[in-house]
Amino acid sequence: MNLAGKKIVLAVTGSIAAYKTPQLVRLLIKAGAEVRVITTAAAESFVSPLALATVSKHPVLNSVSEGAAWNNHVELGLWADAMLVAPCSANTLAKLANGLCDNLLCAVYLSARCPIFIAPAMDEDMWLHATTRNNIGKLRSYGNHLLAVGYGELASGLTGEGRMAEPEEIVQQLDVFFNQKNVLKGVKALVTAGPTYERIDPVRFIGNFSSGKMGIALAETLADLGADVTLVCGPSNFSTQHPNVKTIHVISAAEMYDACINTFPQTEIAILAAAVADYRPVEMAPEKIKKTGETLDILLTKTNDILASLGKMKKEGQILTGFALETNNELEHALQKLHNKNADMIVMNSLKDEGAGFGFDTNKITIIDNNGHTDTLPLQSKAEAARAIVNHILELRHVETV
Ligand code: CTP
């Protein structure tokens, strides 16, 4: 079992499925894991802390302080190899998605540096509500692993989606996770993400709508598999705290180019997901440009093509993946990019597909590799798309797929 010796923080929230958690603890321990349980106040209406303390062989923690003592949530977050929130009620899901911190569980979640698994449990209407959908999307975009809910009889008496995954399935998913975890151990990877900003004058720039989410999801997926990832990220509201990811923040295409040229020789896997500006102003005005004329001409010059440059530098054993965002003749253009830039793989998305492209939490991609394989995938979360892309790279490396 891959769970042998693993330290798991199990966080239990107020849902009827909490009655299954003593069994979940038992299974985790049977698989060799060490388990510490924390609960919310609402959880204790559904499952007895005594039962959880007995099966986990450790006191159950439910508050940031106990008497005069402080339960060190930072320490607990650092201790764990994985945190599992099961069952995760709609309320806790919303809190975690929005960074609220009014109990021990939220504090541990916010301090944890380990992978986080969330097993939602709620009634179908709550599960399907737009707010919940949004929260799930947010949690995924932060790199959390959302476990699929089951279909069946719910506490409301209705039948539908929203049941917590069964304890056996949860343990199995964790086991699979730890099995894959080291597939890329010791492998260095480079990922680019986000837009670039090309300065016009001290206050203005030419940019684009890329959010950086796809690149960040890729960096986290590689890091989860043990790779040491350098993420070269343009201006983005999103970031990652993954301990295996080192982020180099850049603004312009030229800065991104320099960071990539320096990093690439040491890496085995490079995925260029950034939306790099193709042109930049020939020169940046030293002072703010005043609106004197009716029109304004800004002369632009081409930026260095990072993907093509890395394609030229590429040595045997390095796998280079680019992206192609197209609006027409998608496949043809993507194939041209694959060949012209000497990439091993191109991930194509079309702006014509709803839910794909800039800003969304989802993406619809087609993976094209230089062995002539084309794989068109359905609309899925960016985290799932990242997993599919990394799987394809693993196949190209002839490593067992995850
Ligand atoms: N790219 C890059 N450096 C650039 C421009 C693009 O590394 N200066 C990379 C992107 O990160 C992406 C791939 O090239 O992986 C495709 O980018 P795209 O802009 O779609 O392709 P272009 O070659 O610029 O072609 P066009 O804009 O004509 O479609």
Number of beta strands:
23
The CATH superfamily title of the largest domain: CoaB-like
> What is the CATH fold-level name of the largest domain?
Rossmann fold
Number of helical segments with 4 or more residues: 13
Poorly predicted runs are none
Strand percentage, roughly? 15-25%
Assign an overall shape.
Answer: elongated
Q: Percent range for helical residues?
A: 25-40%
What is the residue-mean pLDDT, rounded to a whole number?
92
Architecture per CATH nomenclature, i.e. the level-2 architecture of the largest domain: 3-Layer(aba) Sandwich
Largest sheet: 8 strands, mixed
Number of separate structural domains: 2
In spatial order, strands of the major sheet run: 14-13-10-15-18-19-21-22
Question: What is the CATH class name of the largest domain?
Answer: Alpha Beta
Spell out which ligands are present: cytidine-5'-triphosphate
Report the span from N to C terminus. Answer: 16 Å
Specify the structural class: alpha/beta
